[in-house]
Specification:
Two copies of one chain form a homodimer. In chain A, the strands form four sheets. In chain A, strands 7-8-9-12-13-14-15-16 form an eight-stranded parallel β-barrel, surrounded by four helices. The relative contact order of chain A is 0.11. Chain A has 434 residues and is of the alpha/beta class. Chain A is elongated, with a radius of gyration of 24 Å. In chain A, helix 2 (111-123) packs parallel to helix 4 and helix 6 runs parallel beside helix 8 (270-287). Helices cover 34% and strands 20% of the residues of chain A. Residues 65-75 of chain A have low confidence and may be disordered. Chain A folds into two domains: 3-91, Chitobiase, domain 2, CATH 3.30.379.10; 97-427, Glycosidases (TIM Barrel, Alpha-Beta Barrel), CATH 3.20.20.80. Chain A has helices at residues 41-54, 111-123, 148-153, 163-175, 191-194, 216-232, 256-264, 270-287, 297-300, 319-327, 347-352, 382-386, 389-399, 409-427; strands at residues 3-8, 23-27, 33-38, 56-59, 78-81, 87-91, 97-103, 128-134, 179-186, 201-203, 207-211, 237-241, 291-295, 310-313, 331-334, 365-372. Chain A binds chain B through residues 107, 343-344, 375-381, 383-385, 426, 431-434, and chain B through 107, 343-344, 375-381, 383-385, 426, 431-434.
Chain lengths: 434, 434
């Protein structure tokens, strides 16, 4: 190969949901020019990754070749070769949303690790980094309006992400065709906010989660933080959280001012308060012209939500919720199949999950993400725990369809390919696990 | 502290089973001399580790101290301090055998990783490295008589341990008070031997495991390899394997020459053949004046074994076997509580296991080992998978006894201490997992 002939059909460089990632790669026997054609630059990235995977390094059999090739780096006779040419590859993803969720609240993940991980995501043709920034344990992001959220709410004042850090991640992700979708989980999973903004917390009896939906301070806070997010994260989508909100008597009903407010507003149940909060939050999001993604409880509890809300189904492969949501015409992403913290789930199990395997309009299933919840992960083991298990989810989301190992050629060869791909990741310097 | 006053009572530097590791550490309020006294140098090592753990790094509160201490490395005011002095520590291990098993056959572990891991074992006051060298998948050790075992049986001719490598490990282990006990698993788990020594394998129909107990080549082979082990490994103990031997019709009864031989020797069952093999193997071991350790099947199947054989109970906390074995006066080590490849077993579960919690002579329970079987571990994740979970086993074996979190102060504080200890390992450069 002497050169690669690259043709990009569109000069639009914007990265967005559903951006075309298709590509055509042609390698002929009698030509030393590889041809790569794609609708967008992002398709070119995917095609180049495929080309890289096709290259195999080996040594010439010098007994049959009178002139061993000297690569110039001392490895005499080492060559790269591509098997099975001519190759005519026409490829495109099955799902437009192929993500990995990282959690920087349970353990802080160093910036360099997040950047390294973007390289691995690109190798896996993933296109969404879902960044679960904050949680009960810590709030490591110093937003421009509220740096104290991090200086007081992070594990350590040095274990924070500045706006510049976040912009570095977004830029690096963009260059790899990866969108960054932030999540500041609200109203639950928020104890770390209490350290700097106790005024937005419920008093049950101490300032604690879920945050207090009845005081104006809360909405000033939410509006400001969402404005900060909007300023920094260019993506059209935003994950608004909303999972595991404590609705029992443990919190809101323990705060007399909240109980008073509920009476005044004729609310009998905490779920109404939850709905009130989500409604106001989703209005803020709508005013920013962002498309909200919610954890499935927001849908399961039947809250009124805008029709463009995307439901993130995380409670396993919950076909009941998927069917209900798609029946009501909501778009759905699936994450429940790919919980990387479930150590008993092998990549085989990940691979078997077919998100479209439900009764209903499968067009509304737009993809999904593997989730690396951070309770037991930090820089010591993040890469080896995520990869190559998440690779199985990535291939499922790229290829779609048939997981049957007797009828699908891809499924038949997945064990060998995962093995080789793991080696490829290790050779590129990323310690994917065995 | 200006100096440490070290007193060693015995000048004997030999490391052996039951070597005294007790120590006394005294730190007074009005003296800048720490006093450390032990029966042997190995007790001194344990005491120094404790002293290191007592040191906390922090910064002087300069407002109350007019003269901040300059450490000379730019960290102005940084100091090490020890809490709660005066301290009078008198410590000794509860079990003499506190091990970690590594498996270099399922994945090759680089020499440097094994050496690093010895440092971590020392931090954990472990004193036995049980080295499961070979298995069905590979044979990475080039013994002096049979280097071809590795050159043909390793994953790659470069992924082998030379005699010098092994001596490096033994020497480094000795300097940390750690004995190295090798295991060449026989007669099962031996397919990798077929690549270089098919003459010792059964033909069922291809040369494969278990090895053939009926031909003289087998005993020449075993004798030579044990002589090689004896030359290199100085420890009095040797692990002879013996687990999971295929006794069904799948192998030995499929080899007509073996069936003929059994008839000739009036053997009806393959277990008799298994016993015949173990008897000859254990005789070789006895002639070398080594004490054999066997996996529990050798005992469970009621084979005749020398009374000094140690039973390694690996099938969970199998009190039935432990009771039977100790009733017959065999010494026992327990490994079934601490399977590091069982990812659903947290360190909490490891910590709860009390090896002496059975009916019988608990003096015969001499310790145990955590086991890191290698199917899913290599240098990418070994340290973070083993530690700090194995630390829980290490403390249990050092402290012994009471695992009750309400009555045992150690059990009460274990969560905090594991957390701190994990940080200590990370700070020393070993990526223990969170």
């Amino acid at each position: 190969i002497s050169s690669i002939n690259i043709i990009v059909e569109s000069s639009d460089m914007k990265l967005y949901h559903n951006v075309p990632e298709d590509y055509k790669l042609v390698i002929l026997e009698d030509s030393d020019i590889v041809s790569l054609k794609a609708s967008t630059v992002f398709g070119i990235l995917r095609g180049l990754e495929t080309l890289g995977q096709l290259l195999e390094f080996g040594w010439m059999d010098t007994s049959s070749s009178p002139m061993p090739i000297n690569t110039g780096d001392g490895a005499s006779g080492g060559i790269f070769c591509i098997r099975d040419i001519p190759l005519f590859i026409s490829d495109a993803p099955s799902y437009p949303y192929r993500g990995l969720m990282i959690d920087t609240a349970r353990h802080y993940l160093p910036l360099n690790l997040i950047l390294d991980n973007l390289d691995v995501m690109e190798m896996n043709k993933m296109n969404v980094l879902h960044w679960h920034i904050s949680d009960s344990q810590s709030f490591p992001y110093a937003t421009s309006s509220f740096p104290e959220l991090a200086t007081k709410g992070a594990y350590h004042p040095k274990r924070i992400y500045t706006v510049k850090d976040v912009q570095t991640v977004i830029r690096a992700a963009y260059l790899r065709g990866i969108r960054v979708i932030p999540e500041i989980d609200l109203p639950g999973h928020t104890n770390a906010i209490a350290k700097s903004h106790p005024e937005v917390m419920s008093h049950c009896p101490n300032p604690s989660e879920p945050i207090n939906p009845t005081v104006p301070e809360t909405y000033n806070f939410v509006e400001t933080i969402y404005k900060d997010l909007n300023d920094v994260f260019p993506d059209d989508y935003i994950h608004v959280g909303g999972d595991e909100v404590e609705l029992s008597e443990k919190c809101w009903l323990n705060d007399t001012s909240i109980v008073e407010w509920m009476k005044l507003h004729n609310m009998n149940k905490t779920v109404e308060l939850y709905e009130y909060f989500e409604t106001r939050l989703l209005k803020i999001v709508a005013n920013m012209h962002k498309i909200p993604i919610v954890w499935q409880e927001v849908f399961n509890l039947n809250l009124t939500i805008p029709p463009n809300t995307i439901i993130d189904v995380w409670k396993g492969f919950d076909t009941y919720t998927i069917q209900n949501a798609t029946n009501k015409n909501f778009q759905v992403i699936l994450s429940g199949c790919w919980y990387l913290d479930h150590l008993d789930c092998s990549w085989q199990k990940f691979y078997e999950c077919d998100p479209r395997n439900f009764t209903g309009n499968t067009d509304l299933m737009i993809g999904g993400h593997a989730s690396m919840w951070g309770e037991h992960v930090d820089s010591s083991n993040f890469i080896s725990r995520v990869w190559p298990r998440a690779s199985a989810a990535a291939e499922r989301l790229w290829l779609g369809g048939n997981t049957n190992t007797t009828t699908s050629p891809a499924a038949k060869s997945i064990a060998d390919r995962i093995h080789q791909f793991r080696c490829r990741m290790v050779l590129q310097g990323f310690a994917a696990g065995p």
